[in-house]
Design a protein that fits this description.
6 strands; Aminopeptidase; alpha/beta; 3 helices; six-stranded mixed beta sheet; globular
Length: 106
């Protein structure tokens, strides 16, 4: 069974399957925006739809915290284009957003 949890100190959501790390969704907070910039599912867990489950849970959690979302990660961008549940809290990717991501990596 898959479970998603937010790990704020690591600025990521983690998805586990039966307690084993299966992937992550990395983000940076800037003001009222949560900027999602990287999605990763371990090869061992590929093809199970876990990335979609992870992204949905992360975006839902961000909404619950009153955050607006910015989809820098190509996977998240594709997800929000197909699933319009988050259109009301979706902000565009801007040069300022990209600068925040770059400044917070590493």
């Amino acid at each position: 069974m898959a479970e998603v949890r937010n790990i704020p100190e690591a600025r990521q959501y983690e998805i586990t399957v039966d307690g084993e790390h299966a992937g992550l969704e990395a983000y940076v907070d800037s003001g009222d925006q949560r900027i999602f910039h990287h999605t990763e599912i371990d090869d061992k867990f590929g093809g199970r739809g876990l990335a979609g489950e992870l992204v949905n849970a992360a975006l839902t959690h961000a909404r619950g915290e009153g955050k607006r979302i910015v989809a820098v990660c190509p996977y998240v961008a594709k997800y929000v284009q197909k699933h319009h549940d988050f259109d009301d809290i979706l902000d565009p990717v801007t040069p300022e957003v990209l600068a925040v991501v770059e400044a917070n990596q590493g």
